[in-house]
Design goal:
By secondary structure, the protein is an all-alpha fold. The chain contains six helices and two strands; from the N terminus they run αααβαβαα. Helix content is about 70%, strand content about 0%.
């Protein structure tokens, strides 16, 4: 049995940190510094405040009129429209960042072909086994590949980096975003 080198896992996490920082820099360059994005972000903040005020008036007000409900609906529609415009403005950068991530991940994956980077303290369930044991020979499902560590690191580091750099954008409630 080969020994596991802990520097491989540390390098993978470091690489995930590096690519997260780089993709945020690319996003800032292509999106967040543009005047159009800043304008849309400001509009979103104002629209969200107006929407919250209308909701408070409707919920805590003594009378509930059809006019108030129509104003609230129009305000929610405006927030949805701004949200769609923000998504459109991010589309080209998202495609570029996705392509960048695919290229870097394939380079790193080919460098760690067949290398066990970590040992999991559990056997992953069937949906995760394919990712956690990817490109590793052997039947020990607790052996962990680079791709699994990279994906977990990227998923956990990216939102933190976005928040630290202030590029996570305005919050939109799930109801307004159409998720429920």
């Amino acid at each position: 049995m080969d020994t596991i080198d802990p520097t491989d896992a540390i390098f993978t996490i470091g690489f995930a940190l590096f690519t997260s920082l780089l993709t945020e820099a690319i996003s800032w360059l292509l999106i967040y510094r543009t005047d159009d994005y800043k304008r849309l972000q400001n509009e979103m903040r104002v629209a969200n405040k107006k929407n919250e005020k209308l909701k408070d008036n409707l919920i805590f007000g003594t009378t509930k009129s059809k006019a108030q409900e129509k104003k609230l609906q129009a305000s929610e529609d405006h927030v949805k429209q701004i949200s769609q415009e923000l998504t459109k403005s991010k589309m080209s950068s998202t495609l570029f960042v996705g392509l960048f991530m695919i290229i870097f991940m394939s380079l790193l994956s080919s460098a760690y072909q067949g290398v066990v980077v970590a040992k999991l303290p559990f056997e992953p369930f069937f949906m995760i086994k394919g990712i956690s044991h990817r490109n590793i020979t052997g039947d020990d499902m607790t052996d962990c590949s680079m791709i699994f560590i990279y994906i977990l690191s990227n998923i956990s580091l990216r939102p933190i980096i976005s928040k630290l750099l202030g590029s996570d954008g305005p919050r939109v409630s799930m109801q307004q975003n159409g998720l429920f």
